[in-house]
Write a structure and sequence with these properties.
alpha+beta, single chain, Jelly Rolls, 3 domains, 311 residues, globular, Arc Repressor Mutant, subunit A
C-alpha cells in the first residue's frame, strides 16, 4: 500500500475511534437517544439483538463500533465500523446487531434527511462521474475520510451548545455534500426528484404507507401513480426488493406486532385492525415472517427487551 494511502487509512481509523468515543460518552444506556442536534439520533447496544423488523426512514446510518445486518427483501447488508448505509424511501426491513459486548458496545449515529436542505444542495453539487447507480432504496458503502471528518465535526458540537445553532447546519450540509458527491450521489438525488419512474415508485411507497390496512389491487395502485401494472411491478421491485403486495404485507405484520406489544391487544383484534379478514391466515404469515406464532413472539419480546433493540 502506498505510504500516503496508509496514512489516510490510519487517519480515518483515528477519526472513527473519536466518533465512537463521543457516542459512548453521550449515551450510557442501550437504545435510541435523541440529541440537541436536530435529526441526529445516537444508538448503543451492549449485546447482540434479535432480528427486528421496522420501517426505515430516509436517513444516513454510520456505524462507529460493532456490526449489524439489515435484510431488505432478498438482500442482506452488513455494517461494520466505518461503513454507512443510505435509505432513500420508507422501507420495511429487518435489522439486528451481530457484534457487541458490554466492554465494546455497538455504536452508531442516524441522520434523518431534510428534503429541503438536500434538494437545495442537489442543485449545486455536480453529479459524480460514471454510470448512474441502481435505484434500490438502500445501499451500504465504506465511508471516506471527508464523510467521517464531517460526522466528527457535527458530533463535537454536542459539547459546544453555543456554537451548535450556527455550525450544526453547516456540518450537516457537509455530510450531505459528501453523500451527493460520492458513489451514492445518484441514489440520494432520487429523494428530491419528482419526475421519472423512480419518483413514481416513491409515490407508490407513500400511498401504500397510508393505505396498507385497506385491500387494494396492483391495477388501482398503478392508476394512483400513473404507471402500467407491469411497469409498476418491475420498478417497485427494483427499488424495494419487494413486490407491492409483499411491501403491504410487511407493513401490516409490523403494525400488528406493535399493536400487540404496545397496546396489549389480542391476536385476533390485531389481525382485524391491520386489515386481515382471517386470523388464521394472519397467524401463518406472522410465523413465516417473525419465526414464531404471534403470542409466543410477543411473550419473547417482553421477556427479553434488551434483545429487541432495533439496529
Amino acid at each position: 500500500m502506498p505510504r500516503f494511502l496508509a496514512r489516510a487509512k490510519v487517519g480515518s481509523m483515528e477519526t472513527l475511534r473519536e466518533i465512537a468515543a463521543i457516542i459512548a460518552g453521550y449515551v450510557s444506556k442501550d437504545g435510541f437517544h435523541t440529541t440537541p442536534i436536530e435529526r441526529v439520533t445516537l444508538v448503543r447496544s451492549s449485546t447482540v439483538t434479535m432480528p427486528m423488523p421496522n420501517v426505515y426512514r430516509p436517513q444516513l446510518c454510520l456505524v462507529a463500533q460493532g456490526q449489524k445486518e439489515v435484510t431488505l427483501g432478498d438482500r442482506v447488508f452488513r455494517y461494520a465500523p466505518g461503513r454507512y448505509g443510505v435509505v432513500t424511501y420508507d422501507l420495511p426491513a429487518t435489522g439486528h446487531v451481530i457484534e457487541a459486548t458490554p466492554d465494546k458496545p455497538y455504536l452508531c449515529l442516524y441522520l434523518d434527511f431534510d428534503p429541503g436542505t438536500l434538494g437545495d444542495l442537489a442543485l449545486r453539487v455536480p453529479p459524480a462521474p460514471g454510470a448512474p447507480s441502481p435505484p434500490i432504496g438502500k445501499m451500504v458503502s465504506d465511508a471516506g475520510a471527508g464523510l467521517l471528518d464531517a460526522a466528527l465535526r457535527l458530533l463535537r458540537l454536542l459539547d459546544d451548545p453555543a456554537a451548535l445553532p450556527v455550525l450544526g447546519p453547516l456540518a450537516e450540509q457537509e455530510i450531505l455534500y459528501h453523500l451527493l458527491a460520492g458513489p451514492d450521489g445518484a441514489r440520494m438525488r432520487h429523494i428530491t426528484s419528482s419526475q421519472g419512474r423512480v419518483a413514481q415508485v416513491g409515490r407508490a411507497i407513500a400511498w401504500i404507507g397510508k393505505n396498507f390496512r385497506e385491500r387494494f389491487s396492483i391495477e388501482r395502485l398503478a392508476t394512483e401513480v400513473g404507471m402500467s401494472p407491469s411497469s409498476l411491478h418491475e420498478h417497485f421491485r427494483a427499488v424495494t426488493a419487494l413486490t407491492p403486495l409483499q411491501f403491504q404485507k410487511q407493513l401490516r405484520l409490523q403494525d400488528a406486532r406493535s399493536l400487540m406489544l404496545v397496546e396489549n391487544i389480542d391476536v385476533t383484534t390485531a389481525a382485524l385492525r391491520v386489515g386481515y379478514e382471517s386470523p388464521s391466515q394472519f397467524s401463518r404469515e406472522y410465523r413465516r415472517h417473525f419465526g414464531e406464532p404471534p403470542a409466543r413472539d410477543i411473550a419473547r419480546l417482553r421477556a427479553s427487551p434488551d434483545l429487541a433493540v432495533r439496529a
